[in-house]
């Protein structure tokens, strides 16, 4: 059973990346263009307003890059940072816990994107078209040798 789960792991990670990125991009599109219900129940955020408009641009562009799997780790790092900023500057001053301050989406997005920074895009990512592949299968499977600390 674990063998099948391990074989499906890159595809499950890709599905996670695509869903999270798509939801994030839709949130940015709603804020920038007033589609899908708009920002905060209707309308759009005026261009150039801090921090809402910039956050919406990060959401749209970063979410789209994550969906495509293009520059995934960098896009996810920027998206995670923007959600950490949103949580600590907007939500956390209202109350301590996310359930109390309405910051659950910011906290979940922050951690989801941080996970993608460390795991990478998984399968079905455009990043794979631009990264060189090793010539032998043995080079991929070999773990890096641990380095020994140098005595001072």
Describe what you observe in this structure.
The model has no long low-confidence stretch (mean pLDDT 86). The longest helix has 32 residues, at 2-33. The chain has 152 residues and is an all-alpha fold. The relative contact order is 0.14. The chain has 7 helices and no strands. It is globular. Helix 1 runs antiparallel to helix 2 (52-68) and helix 2 runs antiparallel to helix 3.
List the helices and strands and how they pair.
Layout: H1 2-33, H2 52-68, H3 72-91, H4 98-101, H5 104-119, H6 127-130, H7 137-141
Helix pairs in contact: 1-2, 1-5, 2-3, 3-5
List keywords for this structure.
152 residues; single chain; mainly alpha; 7 helices
Rg, rounded, reads: 19 Å
Q: What overall form do the CA principal axes indicate?
A: globular
Mean pLDDT: 86
Percent of residues in beta strands: under 5%
Biggest sheet descriptor: none
* Helix segment tally: 7
The H/E string reads HHHHHHH
What's the total count of β strands? 0
Helix content: 55-70%
Low-confidence stretches: none
Structural class: mainly alpha
Determine the N-to-C terminus distance.
48 Å
